[in-house]
Protein backbone atom coordinates (compact mmCIF):
# COMPACT_ATOMS: atom_id res chain seq x y z
CA UNK A 1 0.00 0.00 0.00
CA UNK A 2 1.07 3.57 -0.57
CA UNK A 3 1.84 5.86 2.33
CA UNK A 4 -1.38 6.64 4.21
CA UNK A 5 -3.07 9.99 3.86
CA UNK A 6 -3.12 12.01 7.11
CA UNK A 7 -6.87 11.57 7.55
CA UNK A 8 -7.96 10.71 11.08
CA UNK A 9 -11.59 10.20 12.01
CA UNK A 10 -13.31 10.70 15.35
CA UNK A 11 -15.64 8.61 17.49
CA UNK A 12 -17.87 11.53 18.50
CA UNK A 13 -20.84 10.66 16.31
CA UNK A 14 -20.75 6.88 16.84
CA UNK A 15 -23.99 5.40 18.16
CA UNK A 16 -23.84 2.72 20.86
CA UNK A 17 -26.07 -0.35 20.83
CA UNK A 18 -28.19 -0.53 24.01
CA UNK A 19 -28.50 -3.06 25.41
CA UNK A 20 -25.43 -4.84 24.11
CA UNK A 21 -24.12 -8.40 24.46
CA UNK A 22 -22.90 -9.50 27.88
CA UNK A 23 -19.56 -10.77 26.56
CA UNK A 24 -17.20 -10.18 23.65
CA UNK A 25 -18.72 -10.20 20.16
CA UNK A 26 -17.16 -12.82 17.88
CA UNK A 27 -18.77 -11.77 14.58
CA UNK A 28 -21.03 -9.14 13.00
CA UNK A 29 -23.20 -9.77 9.95
CA UNK A 30 -25.66 -7.45 8.22
CA UNK A 31 -28.82 -8.65 6.52
CA UNK A 32 -28.55 -8.45 2.70
CA UNK A 33 -32.14 -7.18 2.52
CA UNK A 34 -32.58 -4.74 5.42
CA UNK A 35 -30.71 -2.67 7.98
CA UNK A 36 -30.67 -5.50 10.50
CA UNK A 37 -27.39 -6.57 12.05
CA UNK A 38 -26.60 -9.80 13.89
CA UNK A 39 -23.90 -10.15 16.53
CA UNK A 40 -22.69 -13.54 17.78
CA UNK A 41 -21.12 -13.48 21.22
CA UNK A 42 -19.20 -15.49 23.76
CA UNK A 43 -22.17 -15.24 26.13
CA UNK A 44 -23.95 -17.96 24.13
CA UNK A 45 -26.32 -15.72 22.18
CA UNK A 46 -26.75 -14.28 18.70
CA UNK A 47 -28.32 -10.83 18.97
CA UNK A 48 -30.34 -9.22 16.14
CA UNK A 49 -30.76 -5.45 16.01
CA UNK A 50 -32.82 -3.16 13.79
CA UNK A 51 -30.93 -0.04 12.67
CA UNK A 52 -33.50 1.12 10.11
CA UNK A 53 -34.30 4.40 11.85
CA UNK A 54 -30.62 5.18 12.30
CA UNK A 55 -30.13 4.92 8.54
CA UNK A 56 -32.61 7.76 8.11
CA UNK A 57 -30.81 9.92 10.64
CA UNK A 58 -33.39 9.55 13.42
CA UNK A 59 -34.19 7.15 16.19
CA UNK A 60 -32.01 4.57 17.88
CA UNK A 61 -30.89 0.99 17.36
CA UNK A 62 -33.64 -1.40 18.42
CA UNK A 63 -32.95 -4.94 19.67
CA UNK A 64 -35.24 -7.39 17.86
CA UNK A 65 -34.52 -10.81 19.33
CA UNK A 66 -31.73 -13.17 20.34
CA UNK A 67 -30.91 -16.82 19.75
CA UNK A 68 -29.88 -18.46 23.03
CA UNK A 69 -27.54 -21.44 23.28
CA UNK A 70 -27.40 -21.88 27.06
CA UNK A 71 -24.03 -20.16 27.56
CA UNK A 72 -22.23 -22.18 24.87
CA UNK A 73 -20.34 -19.47 22.93
CA UNK A 74 -21.21 -18.62 19.36
CA UNK A 75 -18.15 -18.01 17.16
CA UNK A 76 -19.92 -16.78 14.02
CA UNK A 77 -23.31 -16.01 12.49
CA UNK A 78 -24.88 -15.24 9.12
CA UNK A 79 -28.19 -14.20 7.54
CA UNK A 80 -29.59 -16.12 4.60
CA UNK A 81 -30.10 -14.39 1.25
CA UNK A 82 -33.62 -13.27 2.14
CA UNK A 83 -32.59 -11.97 5.55
CA UNK A 84 -35.27 -14.10 7.21
CA UNK A 85 -33.10 -16.75 8.85
CA UNK A 86 -30.03 -16.52 11.06
CA UNK A 87 -27.49 -19.29 11.56
CA UNK A 88 -24.97 -19.51 14.40
CA UNK A 89 -21.72 -21.49 14.67
CA UNK A 90 -21.28 -22.86 18.18
CA UNK A 91 -18.53 -24.33 20.29
CA UNK A 92 -20.91 -27.22 21.05
CA UNK A 93 -20.10 -28.59 17.58
CA UNK A 94 -23.54 -27.71 16.22
CA UNK A 95 -25.11 -25.21 13.86
CA UNK A 96 -28.18 -23.44 15.23
CA UNK A 97 -30.77 -21.80 12.96
CA UNK A 98 -33.61 -19.44 13.86
CA UNK A 99 -36.42 -18.24 11.60
CA UNK A 100 -36.87 -14.54 12.35
CA UNK A 101 -40.58 -14.87 11.57
CA UNK A 102 -40.82 -17.27 14.52
CA UNK A 103 -38.28 -15.92 17.05
CA UNK A 104 -37.45 -18.23 19.90
CA UNK A 105 -37.90 -21.36 17.79
CA UNK A 106 -34.62 -22.87 16.68
CA UNK A 107 -33.43 -25.96 14.85
CA UNK A 108 -30.09 -27.68 15.33
CA UNK A 109 -27.82 -29.34 12.78
CA UNK A 110 -25.42 -31.89 14.24
CA UNK A 111 -22.52 -33.67 12.61
CA UNK A 112 -19.27 -31.89 13.36
CA UNK A 113 -16.87 -33.58 15.77
CA UNK A 114 -15.38 -30.31 17.11
CA UNK A 115 -16.46 -26.68 17.61
CA UNK A 116 -17.94 -24.98 14.56
CA UNK A 117 -15.84 -21.92 13.78
CA UNK A 118 -17.83 -20.31 10.97
CA UNK A 119 -21.06 -20.43 8.94
CA UNK A 120 -22.13 -18.93 5.62
CA UNK A 121 -25.23 -19.22 3.45
CA UNK A 122 -24.34 -19.68 -0.21
CA UNK A 123 -26.47 -18.92 -3.25
CA UNK A 124 -26.76 -22.50 -4.44
CA UNK A 125 -30.37 -23.58 -3.96
CA UNK A 126 -31.32 -27.24 -4.01
CA UNK A 127 -34.48 -28.43 -5.70
CA UNK A 128 -37.43 -26.99 -3.83
CA UNK A 129 -35.23 -25.05 -1.40
CA UNK A 130 -35.12 -21.35 -2.23
CA UNK A 131 -33.16 -20.38 0.89
CA UNK A 132 -29.88 -21.72 -0.46
CA UNK A 133 -27.37 -23.98 1.21
CA UNK A 134 -25.69 -23.40 4.55
CA UNK A 135 -21.97 -24.15 4.86
CA UNK A 136 -20.26 -24.71 8.21
CA UNK A 137 -16.52 -24.86 8.82
CA UNK A 138 -15.16 -26.62 11.88
CA UNK A 139 -12.04 -27.40 13.84
CA UNK A 140 -12.69 -31.03 12.84
CA UNK A 141 -11.06 -30.08 9.48
CA UNK A 142 -14.25 -30.26 7.46
CA UNK A 143 -16.75 -28.10 5.64
CA UNK A 144 -20.30 -29.40 5.74
CA UNK A 145 -23.03 -28.36 3.33
CA UNK A 146 -26.58 -28.37 4.69
CA UNK A 147 -30.05 -28.28 3.25
CA UNK A 148 -31.93 -27.16 6.34
CA UNK A 149 -34.83 -29.49 5.48
CA UNK A 150 -32.58 -32.47 6.21
CA UNK A 151 -30.93 -33.43 9.53
CA UNK A 152 -27.70 -34.63 7.92
CA UNK A 153 -25.27 -32.72 5.70
CA UNK A 154 -25.74 -33.27 1.98
CA UNK A 155 -21.97 -33.06 1.48
CA UNK A 156 -18.81 -33.08 3.57
CA UNK A 157 -15.50 -31.70 2.32
CA UNK A 158 -12.31 -32.76 4.09
CA UNK A 159 -9.77 -29.96 4.26
CA UNK A 160 -6.08 -29.97 5.11
CA UNK A 161 -6.48 -28.63 8.65
CA UNK A 162 -8.84 -26.86 11.05
CA UNK A 163 -10.97 -24.08 9.60
CA UNK A 164 -9.86 -20.72 10.99
CA UNK A 165 -11.97 -18.40 8.81
CA UNK A 166 -14.44 -18.44 5.91
CA UNK A 167 -16.50 -16.08 3.80
CA UNK A 168 -18.50 -16.17 0.61
CA UNK A 169 -20.55 -14.18 -1.85
CA UNK A 170 -22.91 -15.62 -4.43
CA UNK A 171 -21.49 -18.98 -5.45
CA UNK A 172 -17.93 -18.16 -4.33
CA UNK A 173 -16.67 -19.56 -1.02
CA UNK A 174 -13.19 -19.07 0.46
CA UNK A 175 -11.90 -20.87 3.57
CA UNK A 176 -8.61 -20.50 5.41
CA UNK A 177 -7.15 -23.36 7.44
CA UNK A 178 -4.68 -23.67 10.31
CA UNK A 179 -1.90 -24.85 7.99
CA UNK A 180 -2.09 -21.46 6.20
CA UNK A 181 -3.88 -22.76 3.12
CA UNK A 182 -6.53 -20.79 1.23
CA UNK A 183 -9.26 -23.00 -0.28
CA UNK A 184 -11.31 -21.33 -3.02
CA UNK A 185 -14.59 -22.85 -4.23
CA UNK A 186 -16.53 -21.85 -7.33
CA UNK A 187 -19.81 -23.52 -6.43
CA UNK A 188 -21.51 -22.26 -9.58
CA UNK A 189 -19.63 -24.90 -11.55
CA UNK A 190 -20.84 -27.72 -9.33
CA UNK A 191 -23.70 -29.97 -10.31
CA UNK A 192 -26.00 -32.12 -8.24
CA UNK A 193 -23.95 -35.17 -9.21
CA UNK A 194 -20.47 -33.73 -8.82
CA UNK A 195 -18.44 -33.88 -5.64
CA UNK A 196 -17.81 -30.52 -4.00
CA UNK A 197 -14.11 -29.71 -4.05
CA UNK A 198 -11.97 -26.57 -4.14
CA UNK A 199 -11.30 -25.11 -7.55
CA UNK A 200 -8.01 -23.73 -6.23
CA UNK A 201 -5.87 -24.23 -3.11
CA UNK A 202 -2.95 -21.86 -2.51
CA UNK A 203 -0.54 -21.10 0.30
CA UNK A 204 -1.54 -18.06 2.30
CA UNK A 205 0.62 -15.10 1.32
CA UNK A 206 0.79 -14.23 5.03
CA UNK A 207 3.80 -16.46 5.52
CA UNK A 208 4.18 -17.80 9.08
CA UNK A 209 1.17 -15.74 10.21
CA UNK A 210 -1.90 -17.43 11.61
CA UNK A 211 -5.00 -16.58 9.59
CA UNK A 212 -7.50 -14.52 11.57
CA UNK A 213 -10.11 -13.47 9.02
CA UNK A 214 -11.22 -13.77 5.40
CA UNK A 215 -13.56 -11.57 3.38
CA UNK A 216 -14.98 -12.08 -0.11
CA UNK A 217 -16.02 -9.04 -2.09
CA UNK A 218 -19.66 -8.78 -3.16
CA UNK A 219 -19.95 -10.61 -6.44
CA UNK A 220 -17.23 -13.07 -5.49
CA UNK A 221 -14.42 -11.78 -7.72
CA UNK A 222 -11.91 -11.00 -4.98
CA UNK A 223 -10.86 -12.21 -1.54
CA UNK A 224 -8.76 -10.79 1.26
CA UNK A 225 -7.12 -12.47 4.26
CA UNK A 226 -5.84 -10.92 7.49
CA UNK A 227 -3.44 -12.43 10.01
CA UNK A 228 -1.87 -12.01 13.41
CA UNK A 229 1.15 -10.17 11.95
CA UNK A 230 -0.65 -6.97 11.02
CA UNK A 231 -0.82 -7.73 7.30
CA UNK A 232 -3.58 -8.20 4.73
CA UNK A 233 -3.32 -9.94 1.36
CA UNK A 234 -5.71 -9.39 -1.52
CA UNK A 235 -6.31 -11.73 -4.46
CA UNK A 236 -8.65 -12.86 -7.21
CA UNK A 237 -10.90 -15.91 -6.96
CA UNK A 238 -10.45 -16.65 -10.67
CA UNK A 239 -6.95 -15.41 -11.51
CA UNK A 240 -5.19 -15.55 -14.83
CA UNK A 241 -3.87 -19.13 -15.00
CA UNK A 242 -0.46 -17.79 -15.98
CA UNK A 243 -0.21 -15.67 -12.84
CA UNK A 244 -0.44 -16.15 -9.09
CA UNK A 245 -3.84 -15.76 -7.46
CA UNK A 246 -2.36 -13.18 -5.10
CA UNK A 247 -2.48 -9.60 -6.33
CA UNK A 248 -0.64 -7.87 -3.48
CA UNK A 249 -0.30 -7.64 0.30
CA UNK A 250 0.19 -4.69 2.63
CA UNK A 251 1.02 -3.80 6.21
CA UNK A 252 -1.57 -2.36 8.58
CA UNK A 253 -2.25 -2.15 12.32
CA UNK A 254 1.41 -1.57 13.10
CA UNK A 255 3.03 1.34 14.89
CA UNK A 256 6.48 2.42 15.94
CA UNK A 257 6.99 1.89 19.66
CA UNK A 258 6.98 4.99 21.86
CA UNK A 259 9.91 3.53 23.79
CA UNK A 260 12.17 2.94 20.80
CA UNK A 261 12.02 4.00 17.17
CA UNK A 262 13.75 0.74 16.29
CA UNK A 263 10.83 -1.34 17.57
CA UNK A 264 7.53 -1.80 15.70
CA UNK A 265 4.49 -3.00 17.60
CA UNK A 266 2.49 -5.47 15.51
CA UNK A 267 -1.22 -6.14 16.07
CA UNK A 268 -3.50 -8.84 14.70
CA UNK A 269 -6.03 -8.02 12.00
CA UNK A 270 -9.20 -9.33 13.62
CA UNK A 271 -11.69 -8.68 10.85
CA UNK A 272 -12.11 -7.44 7.27
CA UNK A 273 -15.14 -5.98 5.51
CA UNK A 274 -15.65 -4.99 1.88
CA UNK A 275 -18.05 -2.13 1.15
CA UNK A 276 -20.75 -2.96 -1.38
CA UNK A 277 -20.36 0.39 -3.10
CA UNK A 278 -20.03 0.51 -6.89
CA UNK A 279 -21.71 3.76 -7.92
CA UNK A 280 -18.71 6.01 -7.33
CA UNK A 281 -16.46 5.46 -10.33
CA UNK A 282 -13.40 6.95 -11.93
CA UNK A 283 -13.91 6.34 -15.63
CA UNK A 284 -14.60 2.64 -15.91
CA UNK A 285 -12.80 1.65 -12.71
CA UNK A 286 -15.00 1.22 -9.63
CA UNK A 287 -13.47 1.71 -6.22
CA UNK A 288 -12.87 -1.37 -4.10
CA UNK A 289 -13.18 -0.19 -0.51
CA UNK A 290 -12.31 -2.38 2.46
CA UNK A 291 -12.17 -1.82 6.21
CA UNK A 292 -9.71 -3.56 8.51
CA UNK A 293 -10.26 -3.94 12.26
CA UNK A 294 -7.33 -4.52 14.57
CA UNK A 295 -6.18 -5.72 17.93
CA UNK A 296 -4.86 -2.18 18.42
CA UNK A 297 -8.46 -0.93 18.55
CA UNK A 298 -8.24 0.94 15.26
CA UNK A 299 -10.46 0.73 12.21
CA UNK A 300 -8.76 1.62 8.92
CA UNK A 301 -10.55 2.12 5.61
CA UNK A 302 -8.65 1.43 2.40
CA UNK A 303 -9.09 2.22 -1.27
CA UNK A 304 -7.82 -1.11 -2.53
CA UNK A 305 -8.00 0.03 -6.15
CA UNK A 306 -5.53 2.85 -5.53
CA UNK A 307 -3.66 1.00 -2.79
CA UNK A 308 -4.08 3.85 -0.33
CA UNK A 309 -5.47 4.26 3.17
CA UNK A 310 -8.43 6.61 3.16
CA UNK A 311 -8.99 7.14 6.87
CA UNK A 312 -8.26 5.61 10.25
CA UNK A 313 -10.21 5.85 13.48
CA UNK A 314 -8.68 5.93 16.96
CA UNK A 315 -9.16 3.16 19.47
CA UNK A 316 -12.27 3.30 21.67
CA UNK A 317 -10.21 1.72 24.46
CA UNK A 318 -10.17 -1.94 23.45
CA UNK A 319 -9.58 -4.27 20.54
CA UNK A 320 -11.99 -4.31 17.60
CA UNK A 321 -13.14 -7.93 17.30
CA UNK A 322 -15.61 -7.65 14.40
CA UNK A 323 -16.89 -5.15 11.85
CA UNK A 324 -19.10 -4.85 8.79
CA UNK A 325 -20.81 -2.53 6.30
CA UNK A 326 -24.54 -2.74 5.76
CA UNK A 327 -26.00 -3.77 2.39
CA UNK A 328 -25.56 -0.39 0.66
CA UNK A 329 -22.49 0.81 2.58
CA UNK A 330 -24.27 3.70 4.29
CA UNK A 331 -23.54 2.35 7.79
CA UNK A 332 -20.64 0.59 9.46
CA UNK A 333 -20.89 -1.42 12.68
CA UNK A 334 -18.03 -2.56 14.90
CA UNK A 335 -17.55 -4.46 18.14
CA UNK A 336 -15.14 -3.70 20.97
CA UNK A 337 -13.98 -6.50 23.25
CA UNK A 338 -11.14 -8.67 24.42
CA UNK A 339 -9.65 -10.77 21.60
CA UNK A 340 -7.48 -13.06 23.75
CA UNK A 341 -4.35 -11.84 22.00
CA UNK A 342 -2.57 -11.23 25.32
CA UNK A 343 -3.70 -14.37 27.13
CA UNK A 344 -6.29 -14.94 29.85
CA UNK A 345 -4.59 -12.66 32.40
CA UNK A 346 -5.66 -9.56 30.46
CA UNK A 347 -9.32 -10.55 30.22
CA UNK A 348 -10.39 -8.42 33.15
CA UNK A 349 -14.00 -7.58 34.13
CA UNK A 350 -13.47 -3.90 33.33
CA UNK A 351 -12.17 -4.47 29.78
CA UNK A 352 -14.28 -2.36 27.37
CA UNK A 353 -16.98 -4.29 25.54
CA UNK A 354 -19.79 -3.15 23.32
CA UNK A 355 -21.22 -2.49 19.88
CA UNK A 356 -21.33 0.78 17.98
CA UNK A 357 -22.44 2.10 14.62
CA UNK A 358 -21.21 4.98 12.49
CA UNK A 359 -22.74 6.47 9.38
CA UNK A 360 -20.45 6.21 6.39
CA UNK A 361 -18.82 9.42 5.18
CA UNK A 362 -18.74 9.18 1.40
CA UNK A 363 -15.39 10.96 1.35
CA UNK A 364 -14.13 7.44 2.22
CA UNK A 365 -14.78 6.52 -1.40
CA UNK A 366 -13.05 9.52 -2.98
TrEMBL record:
WD repeats lie at residues 109-156. This is Poly(A)+ RNA export protein. Keywords: Repeat, WD repeat. SMART domains: WD40. InterPro entries: WD40/YVTN_repeat-like_dom_sf (IPR015943), WD40_repeat_dom_sf (IPR036322), WD40_rpt (IPR001680). PANTHER family: MRNA EXPORT FACTOR AND BUB3. It comes from the Eukaryota. The keyword Repeat applies. It holds the Pfam family WD40. Gene3D superfamilies: YVTN repeat-like/Quinoprotein amine dehydrogenase (2.130.10.10). It comes from Podospora pseudopauciseta.
Amino acid sequence: MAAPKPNIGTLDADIAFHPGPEDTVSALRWSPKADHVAASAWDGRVYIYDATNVAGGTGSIRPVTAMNNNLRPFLDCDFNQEGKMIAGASTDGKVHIMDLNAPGQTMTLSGHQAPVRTVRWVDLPCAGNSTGLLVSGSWDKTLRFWDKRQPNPIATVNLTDRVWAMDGSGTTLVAGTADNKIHIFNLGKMTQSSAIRPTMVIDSPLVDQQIRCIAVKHGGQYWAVGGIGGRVAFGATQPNPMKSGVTFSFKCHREVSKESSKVTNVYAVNDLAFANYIAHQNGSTARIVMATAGQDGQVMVWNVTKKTRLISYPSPGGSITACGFNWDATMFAYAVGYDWGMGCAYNTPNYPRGLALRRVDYSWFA
